[in-house]
């Protein structure tokens, strides 16, 4: 599009609020629709390239299932893409719901989205745990009274996540699995 490329730090700071919100930080408003169209075509061609599960993800899902608990995905990524990624990684059998952008009119941290996802899981806020890696995740869980445990494997530091009110901060998913014991 002939625009300057954002720095890695600018991209990291834009992650979590949904594609349109992130893209609006780098593209003039009058060209946002064009940018979204270009990006989505590229994304659909490449979204599974190099996609691997984070270390400890499968083991965490196994541990949740072994406890008889329910797991789901609530993301601001496009829902259809999120379901394809979960299928690709072999996570779908462990998930009672995969909810993303386009499934409803809401994005994280909107409480109605979280309540909708809990309803799909047949669960309630009481006794739930939100696991994430961003301030959006913390606000999403807290918005309906769910504690949020975060990992520092994403785009935000432990200090940033602590300042946002994370209930617990872990270096990786294996540490969360250990804490669940």
Provide a descriptive summary of the structure in words.
The protein is an alpha/beta fold. It is 45% helix and 12% strand. The chain folds into two domains: 39 residues, no CATH class; 124 residues, 3-Layer(aba) Sandwich (Rossmann fold), CATH 3.40.50. It contains nine helices and five strands; from the N terminus they run H-H-H-H-E-H-E-H-E-H-E-H-E-H. Strand 3, helix 7 and strand 4 form a beta-alpha-beta unit. The longest helix is centred in the first third of the chain and has 15 residues. The mean pLDDT is 94.
Name the descriptors.
2 domains; 45% helix; 9 helices; 5 strands; 181 residues; Rossmann fold; alpha/beta
Q: In total, how many beta strands? A: 5
Indicate the percent of residues in helices: 40-55%
CATH architecture of the largest domain: 3-Layer(aba) Sandwich
Looking at CATH, the homologous superfamily of the largest domain is HAD superfamily/HAD-like
Which topology of the largest domain does CATH recognise? Answer: Rossmann fold
**pLDDT average, as an integer?**
94
Strand order of the largest sheet: 3-4-5
Residue fraction in strands: 5-15%
| Overall spatial form | globular
Question: Main beta sheet: strand number and arrangement?
Answer: 3 strands, parallel
N-to-C span: 50 Å
Number of separate helices: 9
CATH class of the largest domain: Alpha Beta
Low-confidence parts: none
Number of domains: 2
> Gyration radius, to the nearest Å?
17 Å
Q: What's the SSE pattern? A: HHHHEHEHEHEHEH
